[in-house]
Amino acid sequence: MWHSATVRTSLGFVVLAVACAFLADFRITAHDPWGELGRLFLGLIQPDFTAVDYLGEAILRTLAFAFVGVSLGALVGMGLALVFHHRTVRTACAFVRAIHELFWALIFLQFFGLHPLTGVLAIAIPYAGVFAKVYAEILEESDPEPSRVIPHGTGVVSALAYTRISLAWPHLVSYTSYRLECGLRSSAVLGFVGMPTLGFYLESSFSQGHYATVGALLLLFYVMIATLGLWVRPRLLPLYLIAAPFLLGSGLPIRWQNVSRFFTEDIVPAPLRQGEGLTGLMTWLGELFATEALPGIWNTLLLTQVALVVTGILALALYPLISRHFKGRVSGALGHTVLVILRSTPEYLLAFILLQLWGPSMLPAVVALAIHNGGIIGHLIGRRSNEIALRQDAPRGLERYAFELTPRLYGPFLAFLFYRWEIIMRETAILGILGIATLGFYVDSAIQEIRFDRALVLIVITALLNIGVDILARWLRSRLRLRHTATSEP
């Protein structure tokens, strides 16, 4: 039901988003945007699979990076989850998961180059932080009673395996499967920084105007995501995990002197390298904040706020597509397909496409963020609506939507939206690599200019900003008494 606190909070976010929209740049500057969009649409409905001679290799590399990165992240995350109650562990996990995979990739590229280790670590490190937090929450929510009745002298590992982990196993498996889907999206996006995954070939095909090839690659990616539950079977999983490391490729040899120089010289602030001392460092930081950090933070916050509200509006409009209270058999299958496509398309990939079609502005970023996250939340809320039993004389159509279902779903909807808030900000920052003036734009510029000290400071600011939004979102969920657990993720 509607509660005054949730209504006031929602209105406050909407008003703030409207104010931010007036300050943002939403111009369409491309010469023929709708013509380009039409040609892209023709490529999607008339894909050319024969033109993609590298298709098999691209898919295998995408799968390999996802499996190895997610598996390594899950393994480390489970270990960290067991000691997650320590403040140091919680803080470290919050920091590493606040940095986007592409930022990690840009860092590792500087000393590993285009080596498979770059892609694996770029996925594994932030995912380890995510897994640690979520696994700890799942284990904490499991029934503690069995652990109290185990025989005295049982080892710690055995006690965990036969009590909490055993009880929480279905939730652990479910969430890990969801993160594998996320890992496939992350793996594909790594192609935009040079790794040989689907994103690399998508970018090159799109830049050359080969829309039929783009359509083939996109459709195969959607099929790969949609059929994940069919080919990722428990019996086949060990085979995938054994084969994946051998499918990563070899890459260029690692020059370990580059690794040493990166940590001992490259990321040391320039004033300290040049012997200017603390005074020079403060001047350097002041100039960095004034010219790059503050403009980047301002644009990141603007874009995040608008995207958050548009995401919420889109999610509320989409959830009836998979709700049993609105659909028939045919429309239900179509609605499920639409939401799979929306939530499976990485924001970075969609923003890249829209930027090519509409020109450089914040509009492609807002649309990309809203489509992806709106698809995810719409799926979750639609699934939640299927648990509601309506009376036989319940109204139909718009009245059912507005007066029967949406008021009951609004609390869970806000919980999911606030959960995605930090994720939307994280993606907003990374979209700067595409040319939008968020924090990622200044990070990428600093790296291109080989000023890694400036890039590292900006990445740390991005992480702290994400952590701050996550804390605010958790406070709002607590204040509004909104219940949401990680096991509810799709």
TrEMBL record:
Topology within the bilayer: Multi-pass membrane protein
Highest taxon of the lineage: Bacteria
Keyword GTP-binding in annotation: no
Segments forming a coiled coil: none
Keyword Phosphoprotein: no
Keywords of the record: Cell membrane, Membrane, Transmembrane, Transmembrane helix, Transport
TM region(s), chain numbering: 58-83, 103-129, 214-232, 239-256, 297-321, 423-443, 455-473
GO cellular component, one term: plasma membrane
Annotated localization: Cell membrane
Name the record gives this protein: Phosphonate transport system permease protein
Taxonomic source organism: Halomonas cerina
UniProt lineage: Bacteria, Pseudomonadati, Pseudomonadota, Gammaproteobacteria, Oceanospirillales
